[in-house]
Amino acid sequence: MQTKQISLLILGDKFITMSETAKIELEGKIYELPVIVGSENEKAIDISKLRDLTGYVTLDTGYKNTGATKSAITFLDGEEGILHYRGYPIEQLAEKASFIEVAYLLIYGDLPTQQELDDFEASIKKHTLVHEDMKQFFEAYPAQAHPMGVLSSMISSLSTFYPESLDPNRSQEKKNLTVHRLIAKLPTLAAWAYKNSMRHPFMYPRNEFDYCKNFLYMMFAMPTEDYKVDPVIVDALNKLLILHADHEQNCSTSTVRIVGSSQANLYSTVSAGISALWGPLHGGANQEVIEMLEQIHNDGGNVDKWVAKAKDKEDPFRLMGFGHRVYKNFDPRAKIIKKACDDVLEKLGVDDPLLDIAKKLEKVALEDEYFKARNLYPNVDFYSGIIYKAIGIPTEMFTVMFALGRLPGWIAQWKEMTENKEPIGRPRQIYVGKTSRDYVEISKR
Ligand code: CMC
To answer: Given 146, 282, 324, 331, which residue is catalytic?
Structure first.
């Protein structure tokens, strides 16, 4: 990280470029603030000493302009539609790498050698089973329980089986063991959440299969049948997981960093990330997209009507799978996924009317002034649901699939945060409530 001497003189709402540091004028006094420039030239005014210097804090609801950390994991440029993991373009990783290789890259910083990859995979395979007692937990959930609720509870429950994970000062080797356990057990618990909802027997992991095939096996195999899966499906899943593997400081990742900053154990920290991901504005959008497309289809397929609803400020309806906090031109993941979606549907011979609706919706919205003016483009979730549906994943499991993909990113961000010894996350606020007043007896209110 280089610190470049650029500065801004901030006077009211006027920004004047000056040389060297940023200057802020408050109550007639000028304060100098350092400017930080990242390795991809992103610039930030470092306000970490602002309150000490001036007594002021900054206000930025939704953190739209706030850099919460310096990170070396993922770079994204929302204007140019660029996404890199540890410097590697997402397009190359999605095309050439395996998900487990990408997980290693995110967590440990570099692509693994063959030996490192073999060791990593072997260690993960050693931990794919979950404690038999956990099976009883599943039985207590109602059949209609949403698998995200089950998954977040199950992941948090892992901490009760591995109490050594509660010690934030345990050895690096033990921390690594927790990481490998999580990567190994999440697919088992996710697939079992689905099996449980069907009241079907759980399928135990098959360690001769790779990560994606093993997950599909635990989801779809039955003890009474030989299991065969089309490699097209395994490839599509591998790609989808890679595309979801990290996305810098999004809602669930920020949750993971902030929960982890209290030194809560990694299982509970990731469980919090799963809960944050569940919301329809974040990972839950992939389920919402398919439900929206079905709704439009069942309503006669009048795309214009639904686009008009999305534009109507009196109507709470939004086009799910459209818009993104940071991508303002296109989402590079959506580009890759759209192509993968066409390939998968063609290879599997699936003719899905929802895809036609999705294509129409995309065309109408992209040509519409409302969407153009607000830079609203299809995001990664717009097409992922169609692929998941084509490969037989039930709608309620879509966000679980997102969690499966995002896990290495959460772990990498947690690891970076703890290794950098970042302080506990604790934002400030501007209090706008009642000022001090005296308690009044209930009989006098
Ligand atoms: N349909 C209709 N209008 C929209 C949409 C949409 N999908 N998204 C944003 N807008 C409008 C919004 O009403 C606002 O209009 P105005 O300026 O007139 O008030 C403007 O665009 C800006 O929206 P915002 O809500 O201030 O933007 P944000 O950055 O806070 O929210 C978002 C980003 C992704 C939450 C939002 O675009 C959205 O709700 N999209 C639908 C849900 C979705 O697809 N989420 C998945 C995101 S990608 C997966 C992930 O990484 O989580």
So the answer is: 324
pTM: 0.91
Q: What separation in Å is there between the alpha carbon of 275 and the centre of ligand 1?
A: 20
188 has a pLDDT exceeding 50: yes
Asked if residue 284 has its Cβ within 6 Å of ligand 1, the reply is no
How far apart (Å, rounded) are the C-alpha atoms in residues 390 and 124? 28
Domains, the chain: 85-429 (1.10.580.10)
- List the residue whose alpha carbon is closest to atom 8 of ligand 1: 323
What are the pLDDT digits (tens) for 30-63?
Answer: 999 999 999 999 999 999 999 999 999 999 999 9
